[in-house]
Amino acid sequence: MRRLVCCCAVLLSFACAKPDTNASADSTAAATPMIALADVAGDWQVRGNNEAGDSIISYRLHMTADTAGWTITFPGRPAVPVHFVSMAGDSIVTHSGPYESALRRGVQVQTNNVFRLRGGELVGRAVAHYRVTTADSVMVVNSTGRRVTP
């Protein structure tokens, strides 16, 4: 019986203990570097790969130190505006479109992107939503960008 009382007392003390929220918040903040728009301002040559790893697309991404004037430009095509959505921690979220797809002629597409700065490269993931009635209306593209101009 004493053992049961002791075990219950120990469990109760753990259950009632106040969690150390500052320690976990501090370690999370230290592990995730903060990104600033000035860190990514400039032109980036971006190459996109499908989930199988095949290189499928290349474009120029222009980013500024504020949220205005961002564009993507596919070879031989006019620039497409990139809309800044949000920024938190190490991530920048953008949206583009609708515009004519560079992969599917005559098909409109919208893309949602998340970019991160890793080791001097801009890495990201895009989800492309095509305006089609078939099952292949969504494509995920992993991208890597190298800075062309600061």
The structural class is: alpha+beta
Overall morphology: globular
**Helix content estimate:** 10-25%
Strand order of the largest sheet: 1-2-3-4-5-6-7-8
What's the rounded overall pLDDT mean?
A: 83
CATH class identity of the largest domain: Mainly Beta
User: What is the number of beta strands?
Assistant: 8
Runs with pLDDT <50, length 5+?
1-18
- Major sheet size, sense and barrel closure: 8 strands, antiparallel, barrel
Strand share of the residues? over 45%
What is the rounded distance between the termini? Answer: 72 Å
**Count of separate DSSP helical elements:** 3
Oligomer: single chain
Please give a structural write-up:
- It is built from three helices and eight strands, in the order H-H-H-E-E-E-E-E-E-E-E.
- With 150 residues, it is α+β, with helices and mostly antiparallel strands.
- The chain folds into two domains: 2-31, no CATH class; 37-149, Lipocalin (Beta Barrel), CATH 2.40.128.
- Strands 1-2-3-4-5-6-7-8 form an eight-stranded antiparallel barrel.
- Strand 6 and strand 7 (121-130) form a beta hairpin.
- It is globular and about 40 Å long.
- Mean pLDDT is 83; it is low at 1-18.
Give the SSE layout.
Elements: H1 2-16, H2 21-31, H3 37-40, E1 42-49, E2 55-63, E3 71-73, E4 80-88, E5 91-100, E6 108-118, E7 121-130, E8 138-149
